C-alpha cells in the first residue's frame, strides 16, 4: 500500500510540474504541450486504432528479432564458454563489438537488405545478440566446478547434465542477460523503424516530428516506456520470482 502511494505521489508531482511549466509558457505550446494535450492525443490514437496497429506491428517484429537473438545467443555463449579456441577468438571479438551503439548497425542493414523488414529485424538481432551471448558465457564460466562434479557422480551426462545442473545454476546470469538483451533490442527496434516509412511506433515518432506535433512525439514516447516497463515488470520479474521460489536463486547484479 505504501509503495503504491509513493508511486501515485511521485507521478502526480511530475504531472503537476509538467502542467505548471506548460501554463507558465516557458516554451511555446507546439514545443512543450500540456499533459491534457498529450492525453487527448493518446485517446484519439487508440480511438482510431493507429496506436493499436503500431504496437502490434512493433511487438511482432520485436518477438521475432528477440527470439532469434536469444536462440543464437544462448548457443553461441555456451559454445564460447566450453571451447578455449572460441573463447580466445570469437569471445574477444564479441566483447569489442558490444561497445558499438546499436544505431551503428543501421547503415549495414540498409546496404545489405535495403529498406525492408529484414533490415529492421537485423538491427534488432544485432542489438540484443551480444548481450545474451556474453551473459550465457559468463553464467557458464561462473558455474562452480563442484556442481558439475556432483552431477556426474550422480550419473548425469551430456544433455542431462546441462539441463539439470549447468542451466539452472547459470540462470541468474542468463535472466540478467535476457533483460539487458530485451532493453537493447527494444531500443534497436525503435531506431530501425525510424529509418523508412513503415508501420510501427518508431514511424509514428518520426511522423510527429515531421508534422511538428510534439503531443504525438511525447505520446509515442510514453507508449514505448510503458510497454518496456510492462515487459520487465510482468514477464522478467515473474521469472525471477519463480527462480527464487524453485531453486532459491537470485539474479546476478
Quick rundown:
The protein is an all-alpha fold.
Which helices and strands appear, and what pairs or packs with what?
Elements: H1 2-24, H2 35-47, H3 50-82, H4 84-97, H5 105-113, H6 117-141, H7 145-153, H8 158-193, H9 201-210, H10 214-247
Helix pairs in contact: 2-10, 3-4, 3-6, 3-8, 3-9, 5-6, 6-8, 7-8, 8-10, 9-10
- Average predicted local confidence, pLDDT: 79
The CATH homologous superfamily is named: MetI-like
Shape category: globular
Distance between the termini: 27 Å
Number of strands: 0
Strand/helix succession: HHHHHHHHHH
Helix/strand class: mainly alpha
Total helices: the number is 10
The percentage of residues in β strands lies in: under 5%
- How many distinct domains? 1
Helical amount:
over 70%
Query: What CATH architecture would you give?
Result: Orthogonal Bundle
Task: Characterise this structure.
By secondary structure, the chain is mainly alpha-helical. The chain has one domain (48-247): MetI-like fold (Orthogonal Bundle). It contains ten helices and no strands. It has helices at residues 2-24, 35-47, 50-82, 84-97, 105-113, 117-141, 145-153, 158-193, 201-210, 214-247. Helix 6 (117-141) packs antiparallel against helix 8. The chain is globular and about 70 Å long.
Task: Give a quick set of tags describing it.
253 residues; mainly alpha; MetI-like fold; 10 helices; 81% helix
